[in-house]
Amino acid sequence: MKVYDVVIVGGGPAGLSAGLYAGRARLNALLIEKDKDGGQIVITSEIENYPGCLPEESGSTLVERMSKQVEKFGIERTSDCIESVDFSGDIKVLKGKGKEYHTKTVIIATGAYPKPIGCPGEKELIGKGVSYCATCDGNFFEDFEIFVVGGGDTAVEEALYLTKFGRKVTIIHRRDELRAAKSIQEKAFKNPKVDFMWDSVVKEIKGDGMVQSMSVENVKTGEVTEIVADEEDGTFGIFGFIGYLPQSKCFEGSLDMEYGYIRTNENMETNVPGVFAAGDIRIKSLRQVVTACADGAIAAVMAEKYIENEGGN
């Protein structure tokens, strides 16, 4: 039975950063990613706030360089989806779809996924006008109307990106002011293609095979507005950016959590010795690429110290 020094679950910025530090420390490390590297950052069209990022940096270009850097240190990689875990012993067990992994330490960097808008018709029309990825689907709405649901950094940044495609982009926000950083807000207010529906929520999305209309309710007045696709267009785009949900289901009952997010201390240690969490999956005040990378680095260094001081016996 092969026992790794560390198994890193997740190939986003936190997992890749942990992999880089584990590789440099010459740990016997395995990084497991169920899909492709990058997590949520891959669908981010523009990155301006990561120190040293290139001009016109996107999530995919940044992750590509991170992945190549990790490869340089030769840590083992595999594609699998962890379905259950057993953290009760000194050797931790992670059970994938067809294989078990045994390790002295674990770094959980599974991140989060987009939160649905939460209205009737949404699920049925995903990929048929409803999307959560501007870079993936923005070009499908060339010269169409586009609606963005949300008011935080991501929502406003992606709305600005979508102005490259749509003839008009309307931000629907449940409050009367945006939550995005002031610098991002300023760009949105100056852009002539960006409009706003304040104090509003999407109540229903309708369409036969593709989005054709939606009902939007004003939360203060209760007034419902029916938005119907332009007759010539036949459809419009609805992009949801209202937050994320943690990918932590397989760790439930094994770790201390709050609303699905894993509780750690400043050293990324969970309540189980030898198990660490990094990035968007943990309870934290700022979920950004820069903090995810810092988390991953700390987790890997702490995992190495754990093996040296406690877990190596």
TrEMBL record:
EC number of the protein: 1.8.1.9
Entry GO CC: cytoplasm
Cofactor(s) required, per the database record: FAD
Matches recorded under Pfam families: Pyr_redox_2 (PF07992)
Reaction(s) catalysed by this chain's protein: [thioredoxin]-dithiol + NADP(+) = [thioredoxin]-disulfide + NADPH + H(+)
Cofactor note: Binds 1 FAD per subunit.
GO BP terms: removal of superoxide radicals
Gene3D superfamilies xref list: FAD/NAD(P)-binding domain
Entry's family note: Belongs to the class-II pyridine nucleotide-disulfide oxidoreductase family.
Protein name: Thioredoxin reductase
Organism: Lacrimispora amygdalina
Gene: trxB
